[in-house]
Write a structure and sequence with these properties.
619 residues; 20 strands; 21 helices
């Protein structure tokens, strides 16, 4: 027998086995089909018609915000919502009646909310009790977990949802630094879907201001979803293995947001809040070497807990419309005349250009200076007599700076102001910062279509006229004096920490070298600022500090020369003070403004001293 015949014989012997295998396979398939369609047909018919997978979003816990030492400033609390899902309500009248009978609901309010949501998707819960009391939740769940129909209730479509909601632990102390959350609007949502698909959805809370907005993505986390197996009434039912598979296919666990360690110092910020009780204004303190913000406080503040998720409408209206502007972050948004704190800029410009010779330049102050047809007064009406640069800055002699400003001219003076970072945003990461204003001849021509008048330079040289700065800008300016002319970028974030406790990202900015680095004029300005406190200067009361403080007072006029406005609290001048300490190794730079506080030396300077003392004593 040849090979081909052997192969044919072998195949013939195997054919019966192959036919048997096919027969067995066919029997198994038929049996399985019989089991699914006949034996279990009713079960799967029920799955298809009476059992549903209801997807519920699981909101991720927003990340912690902590101070530089790890003290929590904002965390989350559990917020309960009682709602109705129209898709599962089989008898609206019965459901509403059952809710009113079980809990202190108002029937008409429930019906009104359902009516307002009639054009919304039927699967979307209609919230009837936001931030519900825990006792309500416990009682309602007790009925939902049992066969409530046998107890005479109809709770079809009723749902209880727990959501982690932001909680501010020290709301008014850190109001403007931390900011607050709001529900994302359609414009923001469209932008988010384009730039960050899948991160936000309708109804999500998003940062509205402050740190919450600047670090929104890092703090938000990623929401999850859970598939709940429910019957036609929306009740959860006991799960079989089949149902568990369905549930797992649609479920995704949420991932909480990261923890943000800030540069803020709780103890110093809390003290600042106390010092500003009954006052309006702002305080900023930062590390002059790194730009880390130690204090960022604006008064008055607000309670962000009352406007997050469950909004207190009356309170929201108050803080929005009140003349005190509670939501206004004066530290970065309010622009004030810098007053005599600006003399540090004028003196730097005067010495660096040669207009002022530190060894020889002296001017005589007799209480004012005649310039053209106007007499420009010095704050000391009796005059300071003969003053050099040191005494002029220490005692804040206006006449000396009138002379310097006149010799410099407005455009050279403006150039030095810009070197100190004035007239532009500092670059802090929180939103809505204002740039202030550095006036120049070109600016006036563009703004008013007028030529600059030489006499206007005199007012600018002492920080009045068109000059405008934010408290933050003034803090950066004095930091540059303290660190030798380096520009620092103020920032509130220090590091992002992951859920595993490891640092994901460190936040730091390098100092930027400017044209002021190495300029001898800054050393003379520093000597003048130490004279303010430790010489015969305007802030002698700060000598009692255990630290060597250098500073400059300021009193900003709020009504113009010759104004006939009726005098009152609102016409009193603003009180300003800038400072750094310790003098030989600066670790903190401070900027204070108290609106209508009258005198920088009497009102603002003592606040700065206590801020400096509190912070430095903690190091």
């Amino acid at each position: 027998m040849n090979t081909q015949d052997e192969n044919i014989a072998f195949l013939q012997r195997k054919v019966p086995y192959l036919l048997l295998a096919l027969f067995v396979f066919f029997v198994i398939v038929v049996a399985r089909l019989f089991y699914l369609q006949v034996a279990q047909g009713e079960h799967y018919q029920k799955l298809a018609t009476e059992i549903f997978i209801r997807e519920e979003e699981i909101v991720a816990r927003r990340g912690l915000i902590i101070d530089r030492t790890g003290k929590p400033l904002a965390d989350t609390r559990t917020y309960y919502e009682i709602g109705l899902i129209p898709q599962y309500i089989d008898n609206k009248a019965e459901v509403v009646a059952s809710l009113v009978k079980l809990l202190p609901f108002n029937k008409n309010e429930i019906l009104e909310k359902l009516n307002k949501a009639r054009f919304e998707p039927k699967f979307r819960p209609v919230v009837i009790a936001p931030d519900a009391d825990y006792d309500w939740v416990v009682k309602l769940k007790e009925y939902l977990n049992r066969d409530y129909t046998k107890m005479g209730y109809n709770l079809s479509g009723v749902t209880v949802r727990s959501i982690p909601v932001r909680r501010y632990l020290h709301p008014e102390i850190f109001a403007h630094a931390l900011g607050y959350l709001k529900e994302i609007d359609q414009k923001e949502l469209d932008r988010a879907k384009k730039n960050m698909p899948g991160v936000f959805s309708l109804g999500d809370l998003t940062g509205a201001s402050g740190i919450e907005k600047a670090y929104d993505i890092e703090l938000k986390g990623s929401d999850g979803v859970i598939g709940l197996v429910v019957d036609a009434r929306g009740r959860e039912i006991t799960q079989t293995d089949d149902l568990k598979v369905l549930q797992q296919q649609v479920s995704k666990m949420p991932v909480g947001g990261g923890t943000l360690r800030t540069t803020l110092d709780f103890q110093t910020q809390a003290l600042t809040s106390e010092l500003f009780k009954g006052k309006m204004g702002a305080a900023v303190a930062l590390n002059p070497q790194t730009g880390e913000v130690i204090v960022l406080y604006s008064s008055p503040g607000f309670d962000a807990n009352r406007i997050t998720k469950k909004v207190d409408k009356k309170y929201w209206q108050l803080i929005n419309l009140h003349e005190n502007k509670y939501l206004f972050n004066r530290a970065i948004q309010a622009m004030y005349p810098p007053a005599s704190t600006y003399k540090a800029v004028t003196l730097t410009a005067g010495i660096d250009t040669g207009v002022v010779d530190p060894e020889n330049t002296k001017h005589v102050c007799r209480g004012g200076l005649r310039f053209g047809n106007r007499f420009f007064k010095c704050w000391k009406h009796s005059g300071h007599g003969v003053v050099n640069y040191l005494r002029s800055l220490g005692q804040s002699c206006d006449v000396f700076f009138y002379q310097v400003g006149s010799s410099l001219g407005i455009d050279r003076l403006a150039g030095y102001a810009r070197r100190f970072g004035l007239g532009k945003k500092t670059g802090i990461e929180i939103p809505y910062e204002q740039a202030g204003l550095v006036p120049s001849s070109e600016w006036k021509k563009r703004r008013y279509k007028q030529d600059w008048i030489a006499s206007e330079t005199l007012s600018v040289s002492i920080g009045q006229s068109y000059n405008l700065v934010t408290p933050l800008q003034n803090a950066v300016m004095v930091a540059m004096v303290a660190n030798g002319g380096y520009k620092v970028t103020p920032h509130l974030g220090k590091e992002i920490i992951g859920l595993d406790g490891k640092v994901i990202r460190r936040i730091a900015y390098d100092k930027q070298k400017t044209d002021l680095v190495g300029v001898p004029a800054l050393e003379f300005v520093k000597k003048g600022m130490i004279e303010v406190v430790h010489g015969a200067g305007t802030a002698k009361r700060l000598r009692k500090s255990p630290y060597k403080i250098a500073g400059k007072t300021g009193t900003a006029q709020v009504v113009g020369h010759g104004s006939k406005v009726k005098k009152g609290v609102k016409t009193e001048p603003h009180a300003l003070f800038v400072a750094f300490a310790p003098y030989d190794n600066p670790k903190i730079a401070v900027s204070i403004i108290v609106e209508h506080g009258r005198g920088g030396s009497s009102t603002a300077a003592p606040i700065a001293m206590q801020i400096i003392d509190t912070y430095l004593s903690s190091l």
